[in-house]
Amino acid sequence: MLQFPAKRTLSVALAATAGAAALSFALLPGTSATAAAPPSVSGSPEGAFTRIADFYGSYIDAVYDGDGRTSDQLRAFYLSEPLQRKLRQWEEANHADGVLRAQNVPLKWKVTSVDSGMGKTNASVTLTWSGNTTTTVHVQADLATRKITAIRE
Question: How many CA atoms lie within 13 A of 92 on its CB side?
Fold first, then answer.
């Protein structure tokens, strides 16, 4: 058994008592001993669903920043050629951004997996605008190529 000088034992006891007192003050009624976990985002370059989320996050950032070159590059990388053509037609007819289905930029976005099957994955993308109004677009991606093949209201 280890023996500590009396002075050392007293200082350890006082430190323990002070720590317990501090803890009792920190845990007032209605408080929690655990802090909220910091937000996190994860994904995989192999997943078509992750690609949908990555595209929308990056695309909205580029449009918000007014970076037309980057938004065009993102479309070329993430969207299938047939979808890019359909979006250009939709945009000419509607005078709005075909990816966002709007003339302005949302303040927030959320991508939710809907289902996967038959070589496709489906997601809903909820876009939040000023005044907390939301719209939802339905997005489909090919599992083999991971390219987004459809965006519908």
Answer: 5
- SS3 sequence, 35-68? CCCCCCCCCCCCCHHHHHHHHHHHHHHHHHCCCH
pLDDT tens digits for range 55-68: 999 999 999 999 99
Two tokens at 152? 């519908």
φ, ψ dihedrals at 99, nearest 5°: -70, -45
Q: Are strands 134-142 and 108-117 parallel, antiparallel or unpaired?
A: unpaired
Fill in the DSSP letter of residue 11.
H
- Contact by Cβ (8 Å): 135, 67: no
Helix axes 68-78, 81-94, angle to 10 degrees: 130
Give the CA dihedral 52, 113, 92, 86, nearest 10 degrees: 80
* Residue count of the chain: 153
Distance CA 29, CA 19 (A): 18
> What is the distance between the alpha carbons of residues 127 and 106, in angstroms, rounded to a whole number?
6
This prediction has a pTM of 0.75
What is the token pair recorded at 39?
Answer: 């937000």
Q: Which residue has the tokens 């995989």?
A: 44
